[in-house]
């Protein structure tokens, strides 16, 4: 007998029909619930392994509200709903389902989706178990390391970070100990500022009594708590320590767990994050399941005769250590930055790289999607096999199939030779489908089939070719919106969106601008042989005040130009692109100030002008490519290279 499924659906006829189909296919259906409340009771009673979940249910309850409970219990679920408007899809997506079927659907589609979902769930559970085992082994290994205790405890944050993300971690030990508190604040990738004893209280200006009562509140806590969003803000109202920590570190969510040493004394782990809704029951459950390892690690560390960090430390040395943040993180080949937003992208890369899971990278043009894809590939076990990059926007409509899957000699006019397609070229490695949102609907159908079966035929052949390819896709479009407006297939979206990574625009991570700019100065002064030494503080402020529509690509090009103009010394004044606002240009024109533009800026302006006149159409008769006298694929790559925003082009 296959999985035990619960159907949560308020239309009885639909639910019953589903039950008949599932039973016929060999599944066991343990019940039908019409509301979230009924579902909760049936879950308690029958312990289903899977749930088919409608979104709008009886008594105004919603399937999306049941989803977090299912995730916490490791019960896989697929949505079945007739509603695909954007906000419903976004809420559904946030709950990380295994699939979404739009009613009415064919029996065959349901069975295929269930089959894929079951495989994926099984795989995820295995990975989760392996990861938990690694977590426990690393914790236990920590206590048994040789060397001073402060060195061992200093490795704790790096171990924990890959399993439970945090920006500040507090370890609260029984108050009578000399070393009754550690804090670790994240300052970079695998870089932490360590606080011992009451240092954290001191930098936040918290008095001794308030600090002690805050620590005791965690030690007396029963079990674990998660405080995201409003819950976290409520904690700030009646606890001055929490408020000060929040101000100092700009935190927005918290999770804590109380654990016990052998002698009955309690200790607590308190995690804080700068990201909203960072913590889930899954995190807390992982900690609970790992509590024997956490307790024995803490036991061995606290059994030590010496206070944990005994020697008075040189504050200035410690400060300079924290300030020394290398620009490039060797593990993430060429990715630069240390903003919280970028660090959480790096954590996700680290998490997904070693598995064969499909990844969907989203973000504005120039934010580094391709860079991230390359990094995932290099860090994966396929790193030495090929990474084949396909720019879906530049594929000529009539040749998409042959580009992706290849063709036989004579398959169509012009097919003078056999051609190996991109999927075959990527065999054993990774295929990066860039600009996936630009793929026409009929090509999406074919791609979906290949992604499901990893099997295809070359155009003009009926012999199936099987490949083993990892898929990474990227887009700067809002795919949920594309789905709701019928331009992107929902089933393909779910197939690709197994592990989503969003890269925030540069204007939302201004902390990275300085470090990136300095790095680009170094790179281009080396490349051109011009001894440009850096950027002045005033110029840096200029950069930080600009809104970077072309993101990192725009910053890189801008610095390259500055190095060419400046030729040596410090860049003190930066000529920022004039197309920042139409208003600026109008004023300039009125006042007779003709802004000095580079050739590239003028080219970009001209392409935008032509695109506007063609309503953004690139290909076809009267399209921008024809007017500019270049093939559409060349125009697409010029648009990309010059950082022209997508909104100017429609195809
Ligand atoms: N974190 C980073 N550190 C250093 N360089 C970066 C970083 N992110 C991006 N870059 C550089 O910025 C440029 C643009 O990056 P990339 O091509 O990966 O962006 P993209 O999001 O794929 O753009 P598009 O959507 O237009 O395809 C590249 O030269 C890349 O090397």
């Amino acid at each position: 007998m296959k999985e035990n499924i619960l159907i949560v659906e308020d239309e009885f006829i639909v639910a019953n029909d589903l039950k008949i189909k599932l039973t016929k296919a060999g599944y066991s259906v343990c019940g039908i619930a019409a509301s979230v409340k009924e579902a909760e009771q049936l879950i308690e009673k029958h312990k289903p392994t899977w749930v088919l979940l409608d979104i709008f249910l009886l008594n105004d309850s919603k399937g999306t509200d049941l989803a977090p409970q299912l995730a916490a219990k490791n019960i896989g679920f697929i949505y079945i709903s007739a509603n695909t408007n954007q906000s419903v899809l976004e809420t559904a997506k946030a709950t990380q389902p295994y699939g979404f079927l739009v009613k009415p659907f064919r029996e065959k589609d349901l069975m295929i989706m269930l089959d894929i979902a079951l495989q994926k769930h099984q795989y995820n559970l295995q990975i989760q178990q392996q990861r938990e085992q690694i977590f426990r082994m690393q914790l236990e290994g920590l206590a048994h390391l040789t060397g001073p205790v402060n060195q061992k405890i200093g490795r704790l944050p790096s171990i924990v970070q890959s399993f439970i993300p945090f920006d500040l971690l507090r370890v609260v030990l029984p108050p009578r100990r000399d070393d009754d508190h550690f804090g670790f604040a994240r300052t970079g990738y695998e870089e932490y500022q360590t606080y011992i004893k009451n240092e954290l209280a001191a930098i936040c200006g918290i008095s001794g009594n308030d600090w002690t009562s805050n620590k005791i509140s965690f030690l007396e806590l029963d079990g674990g708590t998660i405080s995201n969003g409003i819950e976290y803000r409520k904690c700030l109202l009646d606890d001055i320590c929490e408020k000060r920590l929040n101000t100092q570190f700009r935190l927005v969510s918290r999770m804590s767990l109380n654990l016990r040493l052998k002698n009955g004394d309690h200790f607590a782990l308190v995690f804080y994050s700068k990201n909203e809704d960072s913590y889930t029951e899954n995190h807390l459950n992982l900690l609970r399941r790992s509590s024997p390892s956490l307790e024995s690690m803490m036991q061995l560390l606290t059994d030590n005769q010496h206070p944990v960090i005994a020697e008075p430390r040189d504050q200035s040395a410690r400060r300079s250590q924290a300030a020394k943040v290398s620009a490039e993180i060797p593990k993430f080949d060429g990715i630069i930055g240390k903003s919280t937003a970028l660090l959480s992208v790096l954590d996700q890369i680290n998490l997904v790289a070693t598995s064969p899971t499909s990844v969907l990278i989203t973000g504005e043009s120039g934010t580094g999607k391709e860079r991230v894809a390359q990094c995932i590939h290099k860090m994966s076990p396929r790193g030495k096999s090929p990474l084949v990059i396909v720019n879906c926007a530049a594929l000529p409509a009539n040749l998409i199939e042959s580009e992706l899957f290849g063709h036989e000699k004579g398959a169509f006019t012009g097919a003078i030779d056999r051609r190996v397609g991109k999927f075959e070229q990527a065999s054993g490695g990774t295929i990066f489908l860039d600009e996936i949102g630009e793929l026409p609907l009929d090509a999406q159908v074919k791609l979906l089939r290949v992604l499901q079966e990893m099997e295809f035929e070359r155009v003009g052949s009926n012999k199936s070719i099987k490949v083993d390819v990892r898929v990474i896709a990227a887009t700067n479009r809002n795919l949920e919106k594309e789905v709701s407006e019928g331009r992107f297939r929902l089933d393909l979206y779910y197939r690709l969106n197994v592990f989503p990574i969003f890269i925030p625009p540069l204007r939302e991570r201004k902390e990275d601008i300085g470090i990136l700019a300095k790095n680009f100065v170094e790179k281009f002064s080396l490349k051109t042989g011009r001894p440009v030494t850096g950027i002045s503080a005033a110029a840096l402020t200029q950069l930080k005040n600009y809104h970077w529509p072309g993101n990192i690509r725009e910053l890189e090009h801008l610095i390259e130009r500055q190095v060419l103009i400046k030729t040596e010394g410090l860049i003190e004044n930066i000529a920022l692109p004039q197309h920042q606002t139409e208003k600026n240009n109008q004023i300039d024109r009125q006042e007779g100030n003709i802004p000095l533009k580079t050739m590239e800026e003028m080219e970009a302006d001209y392409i935008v002008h032509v695109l506007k006149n063609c309503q953004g159409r690139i290909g076809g008769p009267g399209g921008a490519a024809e007017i500019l006298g270049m093939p559409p694929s060349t125009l697409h790559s010029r648009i990309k290279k010059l950082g022209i925003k997508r909104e100017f082009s429609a195809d």
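The chain has five domains: 4-126, 147-306, 330-503, 505-576, 589-651. The chain has 28 helices and 22 strands.
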